[in-house]
Amino acid sequence: MKELVRLRMRPSRNGRTFKYMLEYVDEKGKKRCKSLGHADERKAKKQKTDKELKLRMGLLGPRAMKLSDFLEDSLARTGDQTRHSTQYENKSAMKQFIEVVGNINYQGVTLAHGELFRQSCLDKGNSRATVSKKVRALKRLFALAVERKQLPENPFKYLRPPKWRKGKIEVYKTDECGRMLRVARDDSGSMPWDLLICTALITGMRRAELLNLVWADVDFETKEIHICPKSNTAETWEWLIKDTDSRDLPLTDDLVAMLAEHQARQPDRYAYVFVPPERYKVIRKLRKQGMWTLSDARLKVINNFRRKYRKIQKRASVGMHLRFHDLRNTALTNWFRNGMSEHDVMRLAGHASFETTHKFYLAVADDLVDRARAASDAGVGQNLRRISGAPCFSEKGN
Fold first, then answer.
1. pLDDT the model gives residue 3
2. Which of 5, 31, 69, 248 pairs as cysteine with 24 (C-beta 3.0–4.6 A)?
């Protein structure tokens, strides 16, 4: 077991006596050197053992902190162990919590504060789904504090998120996809929207995965796309994948041909598949100025992305309730409808949780309405048709 505390001897100025010292790293990661003020070896060893035990058990007394300081302390301790988007959600939720309850000592937070925050969010017009997300973020922060022995218990342990009905999985119909592809193909802009939409429908890639795709990820020989995180280089900016580290996705022959044709139209040695060269120049300038973050790589690769996509939907007469992400939903649903297993879809989709994949399976497999219709028709449908005089197509000879 690694030694957390070292016992040292420090000689006096005249070199004739000495005192024992304890050297260790405290809970903040800072090196400490504490004088014991005596030369009793037995006593010093006991003090060393006590300090070692306290460090291992995390029993160092937690210091009082305001909520803003508590947030920064928590983020510093967690470091890069959580995704940048999760850190952003935690910051945003805590900032709004402070606006409601004040920048109080985190040790004084109670369930009543959480209930006040929950109702305040609802009163401001936040959707129930949004409020649930904020509550989960706060509960996560305080749960970490319990794990770190900063709090005896989570004050929000019994804070219930508002009940809300999860919407069904939305998908595009085949004719809607066809209309959007035709409209996108006629678009004269620099963004290859038709290729982007087609790739999303075939591979089920997320928007950020598509916009951070580089040509080195496309294997024309094996007809595969390799989804992997990116590092900061002269040509690429840093980007991390959601949920999983990397995965491989198959390409169809038609999509391979479209990608090859698109690559031939781009500048030599150009890195990104879907980022227009003019936008790439702007991003490079922002990077040099230190104005490009990991969050930007997820949200701001293409300016006004949603507005431009909505324009294509409108011209194609496609319902505006559908999102770009629903192209991914459509791909996953098609995989299930064509007989793929839940395990295979989970791997291709890059889901970290089986429950997420299972929702798509249930959406396809749930034929309850159809079965109920058939049962009703078999039970009373024929009698109703006889009474109304309508032809009974299910009877023989009709």
1. 74
2. 5
